[in-house]
From TrEMBL:
This is Kinesin-domain-containing protein. Residues 1-14, 85-98 have a biased composition (Low complexity). CDD domains: KISc_C_terminal. It comes from the Eukaryota. PANTHER family: KINESIN-LIKE PROTEIN KLP-3, PROTEIN CLARET SEGREGATIONAL. PROSITE patterns: KINESIN_MOTOR_2. It holds the Pfam family Kinesin. ATP binds at residues 418-425. Residues 66-84 have a biased composition (Pro residues).
Length: 679
């Protein structure tokens, strides 16, 4: 059975649609029956219609006989009781005539004879025959001779006979209807049983339909998946084809390149062979000259060696010369003086590019000795004179030996003397670049370098630094905590070394640390200068580097100090214009007092070398008292005389030159090492 339905899903669907459910059975029956009859048994409904006709024919056989009234036929039920109890609506095939139709069925067959009769009676005389049932009417031929009463009787008898015949027909028709009704009932029963048989098949069909639908969906999904796979595969194939095409073209070009390279390789091999031959020839030639070259090289090396030796000797000789010069100076016992003239600055001129102004502004110190403009000439002589164009490096080269000697246990004092703006701070502290950095940072760096080198000889050093300012005969600690030092500091001399109470003494570990300390001290001075009327040029600054060394191999110990002093401006009272200002007057008086005290100390030191009992007035100023150990005959002292190049400052420069000459001519004895034995 399923096999017959599985052939076409559409036929299954249409069949399903035609079978009503049990719920809708009753209401749908009339319209569905013909379809079911066709689908189920194949019997057409036409026979039922023919039966209706037959029933009508049969009805003519007798009237008033037969089943219950035709006006209320009982349609057969689809299931259940026998035909008498059927209450459902009648089907078209078995429909009974409507209530009003019953007389019509009855009267219709009768109407014809009646019409015929009427015609016969009242119509023209024609020869017409009407057949109705088993009756045959003959046309009336003669004239009505009989009386009217006889005619009526005949008619009545004929009519009653007709009626009887009709009733008989009707009865027969009713019987036939009854039989048809029974047939219908049995057909319905049959149909019902068919339907019952059909239910499981329908379920099976439904299950199959669902299964098929599922199958179909799965197949469709599979088909879609396959289609998408096919699409992907096609895309991959296309890409692969493109790749293949590319690879083919690349391979073709590579083959071409390979062919070219092969050709080039072959030609290079040829060249190589030629070159190899040339090389072999050259090698043979070079072997011949190699001997000559090696002997020349030996000569060259010997010559180079000799040059190196001579250069080393020259350097050594220069060192010896310098050392001897230093020794001569030390033996002389003089305080040495280096004069340095600063260059002309753009700030010195109103029109820096005006050459005439430039020439006039400069005090031509060399020419002035022989020139015609001036009648007076002054001759000064110092240990070294640095011209304006001299660099910081050149200046330091001259004092480096001196600075280094503090590591050997000497007390060294280097101070810068000169009028304001003559370049003292530039010489001592310098600028911030490597080229302009001044004597203090350079000396400190060198001391660190030397102590590092002496480590290999067993020397171990500790370095300490302090930075003080003497302003109006008061000591200020520039490394102290606050910007203004309010502490009272005292200077103490103990066993050849100088100590100032309550000042910060920093352990120095690196040149960088020293640079930052100098920057701190300078910032303190700058703040003070801003707030207190150019105080920086009105105070002396003293940087002290104290060095203590011990030799672990020899047990020796030494202690030296390097004092680097930037003195206050040396201008005279009237030149400074301080006369009107009480504070400036006091500053200038203090500066002059301390500078003349310095001159007095140096002069007394000179005299002391002749008269040993000569009193040295160190206590006359804070500056000389602080520098006592570095100015005494046991120390090495160097004074930078800083000079302005301006003609306008000539008088001040002359004063400075005279002071420096006095210092330079002073014999203060021979410097002594501060060497102790730790054992
Ligand atoms: N050798 C030099 N080369 C270039 N510039 C210099 C030189 N000497 C001094 N100067 C410049 O001259 C100006 C004055 O110098 P500096 O401040 O060192 O003078 P000073 O004598 O220390 O003055 P003060 O007593 O007021 O401190 C500064 O601008 C400085 O840079």
């Amino acid at each position: 059975m399923p096999a017959s339905f599985s052939s076409s899903l559409s036929s299954i669907t249409s069949l399903k649609r035609k079978i009503p459910s049990d719920d809708e059975h009753d209401s749908a029956q009339p319209s569905k029956l013909p379809t079911i009859a066709e689908a189920g048994s194949g019997r057409p409904t036409r026979p039922l219609r023919q039966n209706t006709a037959a029933m009508n024919v049969g009805a003519t056989r007798g009237l008033g006989i037969g089943p219950p009234p035709l006006t209320k036929p009982c349609p057969p039920a689809l299931s259940g009781p026998p035909p008498t109890s059927i209450t459902t609506r009648p089907t078209r095939a078995t429909s009974a005539p409507p209530k009003s139709a019953a007389p019509r069925h009855v009267s219709q067959p009768m109407a014809a004879p009646r019409a015929a009769g009427t015609r016969t009676l009242s119509g023209p005389h024609k020869t017409t025959t009407f057949a109705m049932g088993n009756f045959r009417f003959q046309p009336f031929q003669g004239q009505v001779q009989q009386p009217a009463a006889n005619l009526r009787t005949v008619d009545n008898a004929r009519i009653s006979a007709d009626m009887d015949a009709e009733r008989t027909k009707l009865a027969s028709l009713q019987e036939e209807q009854l039989s048809l009704t029974r047939h219908l009932s049995s057909a319905r029963t049959q149909e019902l049983s068919h339907r019952r048989e059909l239910i499981p098949q329908t379920d099976e069909l439904e299950a199959l339909r669902k299964w098929h639908a599922r199958e179909l969906l799965e197949l469709e999904a599979e088909a879609r998946r396959r289609e998408s796979e096919l699409h992907d595969v096609n895309a991959d194939l296309a890409t692969a084809r493109e790749d293949l095409e590319r690879e083919r073209s690349a391979s073709a070009s590579l083959k071409e390149t390979l062919a070219q390279k092969s050709a080039a390789h072959i030609s290079l091999q040829g060249e190589n062979t030629t070159l190899q031959a040339q090389l072999a020839a050259l090698r043979t030639a070079s072997d011949g000259t190699a001997g000559t070259v090696s002997s020349l090289r030996v000569d060259l090396e010997a010559a180079q060696h000799r040059i190196d030796e001579l250069e080393a000797e020259a350097r050594e000789a220069e060192m010896v010369r310098r050392r001897l010069h230093n020794m001569v100076q030390e033996l002389k016992g003089n305080i040495r003086v280096f004069a340095r003239v600063r260059p002309l600055l753009t700030s010195d001129l109103s029109c820096p590019n005006d050459q005439k102004e430039r020439k006039e502004a400069m005090a031509n110190m060399c020419e002035s000795a022989t020139g015609q403009e001036r009648k007076e000439t002054w001759n000064f002589s110092f240990d070294r004179v640095f011209e304006p164009q001299c660099t910081q490096e050149e200046v330091f080269e001259e004092i480096s030996q001196l600075a280094q000697s503090c590591t050997d246990g000497y007390n060294v004092c280097i101070f810068a003397y000169g009028q304001t703006g003559s370049g003292k701070s530039f010489t001592m502290e310098g600028g911030s670049t490597n080229e302009t950095v001044g004597m203090i940072p350079r000396a400190v760096e060198q001391v660190f370098q030397v102590t590092e080198e002496l480590k290999s000889k067993g020397w171990e050093y500790t370095l300490e630094g302090q930075f003080l300012e003497i302003y109006n005969e008061t000591i200020n600690d520039l490394l102290g905590k606050g910007e203004f030092d309010k502490k009272k500091h005292e200077i103490k001399h103990e066993k050849g070394s100088t100590r100032v109470t309550d000042v910060v003494v920093q352990q120095l570990r690196s040149p960088a640390q020293v640079r930052s300390l100098l920057a701190l001290a300078n910032s303190r001075r700058t703040v003070a200068a801003t707030l207190m009327n150019e105080r920086s040029s009105r105070s002396h600054s003293v940087f002290t580097l104290r060095i203590r060394g011990t030799n672990t191999h020899t047990g020796q110990a030494c202690e030296g100090a390097l004092n680097l002093v930037d003195l206050a401006g040396s201008e005279r009272l009237n030149a400074s214009g301080a006369g009107k200002d009480k504070d400036r007057l006091r500053e200038t008086q203090n500066i002059n007092k301390s500078l003349s005290a310095l001159g007095d100390v140096i002069a007394a030191l000179g005299e002391k070398s002749e008269k040993s009992d000569k009193h040295i007035p160190y206590r006359n100023s804070k500056l000389t008292y602080l520098l006592q150990n570095s100015l005494s005959g046991n120390s090495k002292t160097l004074m930078f005389l800083n000079l302005s190049p301006l003609a306008a400052h000539l008088n001040e420069s002359l004063c400075s030159l005279r002071f420096a000459t006095k210092v330079n001519n002073t014999h203060v004895g021979t410097a002594k090492k501060q060497v102790k034995s730790t054992s």
